[in-house]
Amino acid sequence: MRQVFLDTETTGLNPASGDRIVEIGCIEMVHRKLTGRTLHCYLNPERDMPFGILGSLVVCTILYVLFSHVLSGVATVEDFRTAGKEASVAFAITKYMTGYAWLAKLVTVAILAGFSSVILVLLLGQSRVFFTMSRDGLVPPVFSEVHPRYKTPVGAVLIVGLFVLFAALFANSGSGSQEAYQLLNNSSAICYALTYLVMFAIPLIGSGEKPPLRIRLAAVSGLGMTLLFTVLSVFPIIDVNDAVLFSAKVGGVVILVNAAGALLFLRGKAMRERAGAAVAV
Questions:
Q1: Distance (Å, whole) CA 84 – CA 108
Q2: Please, how many CA atoms are within 13 Å of residue 212, restricted to the half-sphere of its CB?
Q3: SS3 sequence of 256-271
Q4: Which stretch of DSSP H or E encloses residue 27?
Q5: 149-205 per-position pLDDT tens digit
Q6: Residue 209 Cα distances to 96, 164, 212, angstroms
Q7: Whether the Cβ atoms of residue 268 and residue 130 lie closer than 8 Å to each other
């Protein structure tokens, strides 16, 4: 029995208001086993971005710059590096803005809510990414196991949660809370930067038709800035107990994460190839 499973992404559910299909994905299965034949394409990927997205980016950038400008003018760098530490914003408000202790508490609550929501979204999102990759045969099937009652990717959720717990314990070993946060933040940023390094390198050394000169110049600029960011992220920007140990931990986390990803990909590839061979027989 041959089956083809189709999935689409849309901008909405009302064609009359302009919503359209923007992405299509298909996989083929024979006798409920993946054959390795897939289809994935975007429809009109070069269309203009909605004004709301670009406008929100501009507004957020302006707010970010203004917030940083005000704080750097109100407090000294030592207030952020040593005295305030991870609660430096609340510390600066309490120290320099007399009568606004209530605002410091409000900012603290807002930061905690922001961190909590971001962590929750990242955990949920990463488990769904692994779930999709597992269904495509890129990682082992355990990541696509679904809870029989709640219909959630329980395998991916548990593995991602355990990995995050291990990373948090590793970062907190022999370091304070601010150093642990900086370590995990720098390590995750480097992992993202490695992806961008590959992306910027494609227009420069990738095979096929060469892109226009303006694209290659933009790729050179992006590659250089991302490489600089990657190198600087290895070193601490705060006071730590041991700068060498901090850099070693950052490098170790990055290496372990990428090694784990490579092993998962190779494992999923081997299982996909065996499934394809079984279908062929």
A1: 12
A2: 2
A3: HHHHHHHHHHHHHHHH
A4: strand 21-30
A5: 888 888 888 988 888 888 777 777 766 777 888 888 898 899 889 989 998 998 888
A6: 58, 41, 10
A7: no
